[in-house]
What we know:
Number of strands: 9
Amino acid sequence: AGRRWGFPTRGGARVAGLTAGVPPPPATAGGVASAAGTDRHDRREAVRVFERAVRLRARPVRPAGPLIGYQGLYEDDLRAVPTGRRITFRLNPQLALTNEWPDLPSYLGSLTNKFRRHVRKLRETVDADRTLRVDTDGAVDPVEACWLAEVVRRRYASRWLPSPPLPTCYFAGMARLPGTRFMTYRDGRGRLVACGTMYDDGRDLTFVCWGGRDTADGRRAGVYFDQYLRSVEIMIELGRRRLLMGRGMEQVKGRY
């Protein structure tokens, strides 16, 4: 999925400022998705054609063309993307939890006493809340999922590293893919409070995106941390090799 991100100018007009390509699962781990069997030359040529098409489309509103950014590129991806005139930022690695346990009690037993008590208390608090319903494989409206993800994106957005919002079509496309799971938290009225998006490729369970309401709009304390424990439980139950937890929040994720 791709979208153009408009920046307001001094006169109030909007121009195509940044185009971001977002590969859907199962290519969520990297910023560029290539067809199987393509070599380095084919990948470079595909990127060149893609960027030329983006610039031609944006030319009526921005003659110089938009900025084109790629996120989450690995070393092989960098070889396919022209980098001579680009600014490159080194990102934190994606955290991965290797499955070493036959069941959830064994996993909990591997944690430190203090953190084990913490996650058990979180689970008990969420489970005891009669105004909260949790579904680890629920259905969501793509518009709602998009909006909640945008709430979180704006909360942690960087001033120096622009990151366009994920469009509604991204979540709609993911919902159609076998292997996509939505972990949903709903209040007593059925209103979606928070949503975690995961992708299961049969080997690894990948955590893709998290969205949740702000405090003033019904945000529930603890559900963000609760979803990590439930994700570990799903990984163990399905017998997956690893849980890929994404980038950022290392101090939180590393405790699991």
